[in-house]
Amino acid sequence: MTQAHNSMDHFQENRSCKECGVTYTIGQFYESCSSNFDPPDRYSDGCDDYCLACWLGVGPNDFPPMEDGDSGATEFVYPPYKG
Ligand SMILES: [Zn+2]
Prior knowledge:
By secondary structure, the protein is mostly helical. The chain has a domain of 45 residues. Helices cover 22% and strands 5% of the residues. It has a two-stranded antiparallel ribbon. Bound molecules: zinc ion. The site of zinc ion (ZN) has 9 residues, from helix 3. The site of zinc ion has 9 residues, from helix 3.
């Protein structure tokens, strides 16, 4: 299989993060956080397998749930985890 890696289908395809299990599309992150696809974050290297938050080390699995309601920028809203 030789598919162009930058097609729109690729961006719109539903993916499941291998770390936190969230369903995402690359496109949803590219719209709001396109700068993270460039160095130094290089999310373009991980966007196939991980959501942006996990790639950046700020995913739900990186911070155990705590009772702090005020953690600054909450750009992403995660749906309930479905095992
Ligand atoms: Zn994730």
